Automatic annotation (TrEMBL), chain A:
Native source organism of the sequence: Donghicola eburneus
Name of the featured protein: Glycine cleavage system H protein
Encoding gene (name): gcvH
Cofactor note: Binds 1 lipoyl cofactor covalently.
GO cellular component, one term: cytosol
HAMAP family listed in its UniProt record: GcvH
PROSITE patterns: BIOTINYL_LIPOYL, LIPOYL
Domain of life according to the entry: Bacteria
TrEMBL record, chain B:
Class of this enzyme: transferase
Protein name: aminomethyltransferase
Organism encoding this protein: Donghicola eburneus
Family per record: Belongs to the GcvT family.
Domain spans labelled GCVT N-terminal: 9-255
């Protein structure tokens, strides 16, 4: 599992990357009450804002960590947003993205580096 | 952060692991480790303790205090019985709301509770118009809210008399003289309790030690009051909105309206009485988004998906944990203010449907 500066995690699953948000991010957000995910099939560019998360405190965006095509989204967190607080690293993954080369993941922080980064 | 004021309960909040944020010049708990959602639900299910010591407590001792206060607010002060409290608001010459407040008749004086953000201005306003204005600075103010409040408070204050909604009493306790009112700002039954600063920490700890009571932060205070349809001054009412526009007509007693025995005689009376008789151009309403996305303050409201010009604006919006749905309060042009009207809010560039609904979103549970 690798981590972005925007507090997302990524892991490889076949030729896809699975993306979610970190425990640190979910704690900072507070109770999540609404999630809007991108359409399946959408081609996204790195940095493009593709997810909206609303917590009891505020709305925040999540941007695509890499270029690729959204091939699957996790409707479970749309139906039950509190899953994002309960199991951010597991059941509450956000989307799966098809990338040209999964080695793009090597450009992100490993767990140790992320822990230092997130403090 | 050193310029932020602290309430007498600051150390209790820190000890409880609260997340502290600046609010109205004070370092205040926005949430405790339980989190906003669970704090909110706990308050409606059992009892929640809120530190509201940042609010202003003001005594008016002048012989003509009631008459003089009636010159500043459109409420019936002279007719308020001893031991009773009432909701009111200071108005300006344009009929706008300078602040909202609670005032109680305590026999030989009136006790006011005003908002933290406005208390300096309120006190200056009072002092400019009357004598005997005394700010209380040596007392904390706590709110205990929720269906288990009565049992909880009785267990800590055995001398607590029977009180109904908006009764006030002075009660002797192990924590000194308590000034108690049966009121609050959550829509639940409960009490607001003024306690001497020196014993406030022990009093709060004794309540929190009870199984039924959890400390509640400003985050849940906001979602609780919004579900209850109650206004936050600065958001939902302010010096540019009148009480008629703010849908607070119920708080202006007949005696102060046209034809009443002391009609008018408060700042902005001409505007407010005219709007009472002839209507106002806009009105505060509840909005129920049809989707799950909260519609927060400043969201613009439109009459249709295509309309170019907005007909309203959200002033408070959040997810209601008890309602289990998003909810907003907004001002809309009066022709669109009827319950059941379908409107659209612009959320991130998309027109999302909403219904105008009656307030409150969650029924009040006062001890009448």
């Amino acid at each position: 599992m690798k981590f972005t500066e925007e507090h997302e995690w990524l892991k490889i699953e076949g030729d896809l990357l699975v993306v979610g948000i970190t425990e640190h991010a979910s704690t900072q957000l507070g109770d999540v009450v609404f999630v809007e995910l991108p359409d399946v099939g959408r081609e996204v560019e790195k940095g493009e804002e593709i997810v909206v998360i609303e917590s009891v405190k505020a709305a925040s965006d999540i941007s695509a960590p890499v270029d690729g095509e959204i091939v699957e989204v996790n409707d479970a967190i749309v139906d039950n947003p509190s899953l994002v607080n309960e199991d951010p690293l597991g059941a509450a993954w956000f989307f799966k993205i098809k990338v040209e080369d999964t080695s793009v993941i090597d450009g992100f922080m490993d767990e140790g580096a992320y822990k230092d980064y997130a403090g | 952060m050193s310029d932020l004021l602290r309430t007498p309960l600051y150390d209790v909040h820190v000890e409880l692991g609260a997340k502290m944020v600046p609010f109205a010049g004070y370092d205040m708990p926005v949430q405790y480790p339980l989190g906003v959602m669970k704090e909110h639900l706990h308050c409606r299910a059992a009892a929640g303790l809120f530190d509201v010591s940042h609010m202003g407590q003001v005594i008016l001792r002048g012989a003509d205090a009631a008459v003089q206060l009636e010159a500043l607010i459109p409420q019936n002060v002279l007719g308020l019985a001893e031991g009773r409290q009432r909701y009111g608001f200071f108005t300006n010459e344009e009929g706008g709301i300078l602040d909202d407040l609670m005032f109680a008749n305590r026999g030989d004086h009136l006790l006011l509770v005003v908002n933290a953000a406005n208390k300096a201005a309120d006190i200056a306003h009072l002092k400019a118009h009357m004598d005997g204005v005394e700010e209380i600075t040596d007392r904390a103010l706590l709110a205990l809210q929720g269906p288990a409040s009565e049992d909880a408070l009785k267990s800590v204050v055995p001398a607590l008399p029977d009180m109904k909604f908006m009764d006030v009493a002075v009660v002797d306790s192990a924590y000194g003289e308590l000034w108690v009112s049966r009121s609050g700002y959550t829509g639940e039954d409960g009490y607001e309790i003024s306690v001497p600063e020196a014993t406030a920490t022990d009093f709060a700890k004794a309540l929190i030690a009870l199984e039924a009571v959890e400390p509640i932060g400003l985050g849940a205070r906001d979602s609780l009051r919004l579900e209850a349809g109650l206004c936050l001054h600065g958001n939902d009412i302010d010096p540019t909105t009148t009480p008629v526009e703010g849908n607070l007509i119920w708080a202006i007693q007949k005696s102060r309206r046209t034809g009443g025995e002391r009609a008018g005689g408060f700042p902005g009376a001409e505007v407010i009485l005219d709007q009472l008789d002839n209507g106002a151009p806009k009105k505060r309403v509840g909005l129920q988004p049809e989707g799950r996305a909260p519609m927060r303050a400043l969201t613009m409201i439109y009459a249709s998906e295509e309309a170019a010009d907005p007909i309203g604006e959200v002033t408070s919006g959040a997810f209601g944990p008890t309602l289990n749905a998003p909810m907003s309060m907004a001002y809309v042009t009066t022709e669109f203010a009827a319950s059941g009207t379908r409107l659209f809010g612009d959320v991130r560039g998309k027109r999302m449907p909403v219904q105008v609904v009656d307030l409150p979103f969650v029924p009040n549970n006062f001890k009448r």
